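[job 4417] fold queue: 2 targets
>>> target A
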Amino acid sequence: MEVETRYHPSAEQLALGSTIDDSLAALLPLSRLHTAHHEDAKTWSDLEEIGVFGIGVSEELGGSGLGAVEEALIVMNLGRRLASPGVLATIGAAHARQLSGNAGASRARRTAAAYRQGDRIILVEEREAALVLLRERSGTALHAHPGVSRAVDERLWLAGLRELDEAGERLAQFDASQLLRLRLIDAAALAGIAAAALEMGVAYAGMREQFGRPIGSFQAVKHHCANMVMAARCARDQTNFAAVALDEGRPDAPLQVECAFYIAGSAALENAGKNIQIHGGMGFSDEADPHLFLKRAQLLITIAGGLEAANLRIADIKVDG
């Protein structure tokens, strides 16, 4: 008898994600990003208290012992609230099981995200970070924070970017399975951005009036909103499917995860751009919120190595069975 293929999270898993989102709504208001690019100490403490950083860590090591599905659902909600790359990197760092021989050793240690750009190492500034999660084409590794860096740009992509001469001592190298969990985290955060940009755009289209009626009643805006709905739904469903495939150990899991990252990244960029367009001139202003989604999506995609690289990985994957 064939085992039925599961495509979606269970009702219990969805309920858990919804419960966490209720807490995140108060912890991570978008307004905070107009004054600081990173999360403050209280936010880090509150996220630790509700268990965000121990999602995938075993109960024996003080975590929740949850799977890829629960982690993806929670990270989607973090993406909706534009949680800092450092928060996502800290969640990802917990999967570096080699660290000091302890799977949970990195969980309580704040981690900064970094990526290699040519010969340069670009660090996304995160105050009080002890570790650096560095993405490179040759692999991904967890390093000790070197402590010394040079400012690159304090405004680009909604982040304080800095350059490192070197990343510090290498503490752990991510293997293929751990790297898939990192890419699933990337996909989930981007799917969350796509969903949040959709909600903001649709809400504004229903409220803003021109010529005596809401702009959402005009055909061109309707088409934008419909396309945003499809993009956000595809990103969510593919990310959920990839998470289920990972938890079930399916042979096509690597393909599903890479596709999730590509689809969610594309959706985040598309929806963030259309949200700005729906808002008109106000959408481009620094005081408004729409541009925040586009900048954060661009940053997360760049940290993860870009969509083109993901497309090439998809083309190279061979699935047995």
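>>> target B
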Amino acid sequence: MNIRRATNRDCNLTKELIFKILQEYGLKTDTQTTDSDIQDIEANYNDRNGIFDILENDEGSPIATVGIYKINNEICELRKMYLVKSERGKGYGKLLLNHAIKQAKELGYKRVILETASVLKEAIQLYQNYGFKKYSPEHLSNRCDQGFYLDI
């Protein structure tokens, strides 16, 4: 397994991977708002004190994504943490979450927030097991109905 930083050369591959997983759960894609950030990974993540990373299997194929998106100097948002179906249940979600939280700390953030949808039961269980607490954000993206935060 290899976690690497994504660049704009990865935008199409990232979009395909994420959209396939969203469709699997019956969640809508939205390139105009919620998913517009992955059309320019470098500007939206890497160039503004965030990260967008891809987890590759031993053959070099992408199997997961995760992003840390700057909200302000103390708060970041965990975004686009998706893992392909064939690799779920193997501990890669926890690996990615640990990686993202470590990156958020190194970038100087004090709190990580996230939005998710009820149908993503495995992810919600992972977040809660990690210590994320439920809260009601001022705004939720169109496909999300829950918010969580973790002070780090």
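[job 4417] complete. Note on B: The CA atoms of residues 29 and 81 lie 15 Å apart.
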